Amino acid sequence: GAAVNLTLVTPEKAIKLAANDFFRHHLSKDGQKLTLLREMLAGCGAGTCQVIVTTPMEMLKIQLQDAGRIAAQKKLMAAQAQLSSSSVAGAAEPVVETRTTAMQITRELLRSKGIAGLYKGLGATLLRDVPFSIVYFPLFANLNKLGQKDPNVKAPFYVSFLSGCVAGSTAAVAVNPCDVIKTRLQSLQRGVNEDTYSGILDCTKKIWQKEGPMAFLKGAYCRALVIAPLFGIAQVVYFIGIAEFLLDMLPKHRA
Questions:
Q1: Which of 9, 89, 216, 245 has its CA 20 to 30 A from that of 203?
Q2: CA 142 to chain CA mean position, Å
Q3: What are phi and psi of 198, to 5 degrees?
Q4: CB–CB of 133/125 below 8 Å?
Q5: Rounded distance, CA 67 to CA 114, Å?
Q6: Where are the membrane-spanning stretches (predicted)?
Q7: What is the CATH number of the domain that holds 226?
């Protein structure tokens, strides 16, 4: 899933940051400071835009990362079956391992479920990414302002980086229960003795009953470690204006 993950991360962060700026601009009154509620509304709009665009790539990433676990279980079961049959029928044929690709998963989803198959778990993804943006963007904006000596001058790059790290890790931990639910819902294939879920409420109920409340915090530490530098770097790139610098280096088309 590394290639799909790489394809996902760049547009996800670009859409989220650009959409947040767009909504902040249109929600501000004559350039005045946004209220906390308006900052949260801007984050909500940014998260919604990002989810609509990147959910199919997120879906493929989860399926590719999950394929190895399912294949390992099938291989173990096949090996056990061959071992038991070999004692009666002689030597067994070796287990042939096939590798699942993103294109195979995409074709299968489109064939069996159409475009809607790529948006499986959309509700859970919205439930994770919209609250994430609602928490992240206001928190980042206020932390970043602490490093501004002048309201009209951008904060130093290291302030933006640290603000992105703190805001990103905080928001990641806050919405981790939604991330656990989303991942469970988007797993198309189940391992041996694994539950199936009919929706968000059913998934939440089964996890709570069978694994306890702490199951909703599984992976929170690792997720915070990943999200913190990811958003820290993204905010530095965005605030320093590296993208604008690169675009200015492109040859201009003359009229």
A1: 9
A2: 24
A3: -95, -10
A4: no
A5: 21
A6: 224-247
A7: 1.50.40.10
In this structure, the number of other CB atoms found within 10 A of the CB of residue 169 comes to 23
One domain, residues 114 and 146 = no
Could you give the number of structural domains in the chain?
Answer: 2
> Which pTM was predicted?
0.73
Q: How many C-beta atoms surround the C-beta of residue 111 within 10 A?
A: 9
129 shares a domain with 68:
no
110 and 132 in one domain? no
Alpha-carbon gap, residue 184 to 201, rounded angstroms: 12
Helix (H, G, I), strand (E, B) or coil at 76: helix
- Amino acid identity of residue 223, one-letter, is R
CB 122 within 8 Å of CB 55: yes
- Which residue is it, tokens 């190895």? 68
Alpha-carbon span 47 to 19, nearest angstrom:
8
Structural domain harbouring 45: 1-120
Is residue 58 domain-shared with residue 87, that is, in the same domain? yes
- Residue pair 172/219 in contact by the 8 Å Cβ criterion: no
